[in-house]
What does this fold into?
Amino acid sequence: MINTIWFFMIFAGIFLSFLNGSAKEVADASIKGGTAAVEITLGLVGVICIWSGIMKIAEKSGLTDIIGKALMPFIRMLFPEIPKKHPSISAIIMNMASNMLGLSNAATPFGIKAMEELQKLNANKERATDAMVTFIVLNSASVQIIPATVISIRAAAGSKNPSEIVITTIISTISAAIIGILSCKLLQKEYK
It folds into this structure.
């Protein structure tokens, strides 16, 4: 369905550009947009590789275990139904750490692993557990301390101060996470 909508929008735009005589501008904008997309992508690849490598080093060096111990009281409060040493805990912690650094691309594999591990604990395989729902909310409304991806996009786009968004990002993501978690927990109590 979405492919049909996109096709219609693109076709209509091109067709209308021929009708009103702006086909050259549309062609020029398409080429410039494609060039900009490639430049931004190349800039992001480097940043993602660096931060993914740093996260792997942090994992191998035991830093993530230290972060995990610091986050454990918070994790226990949010996910009381998960056993203490369950593999989903480390995947959740790595996902949270990646998201805190603004590395959503690096966080994705950990998020998938966490959901796979949480599914192993699920008695009803057709329905998400409270822990799964809480994790999805936490992942979607994650706290970001260093929005690395956004900073790199801003730098690639030529921003004079790409990191000026850090404070507002911290405030807005903490607010979103608190509201998301509170809403999730209230709704879980309501529908039990």
User: Anything to note?
Assistant: Residues 23-61 form the longest helix (39 residues). The chain has a mean pLDDT of 86. Residues 3 and 161 are 37 Å apart (CA to CA). The helical segments are 2-19, 23-61, 63-78, 87-100, 104-121, 130-140, 148-156, 166-190.
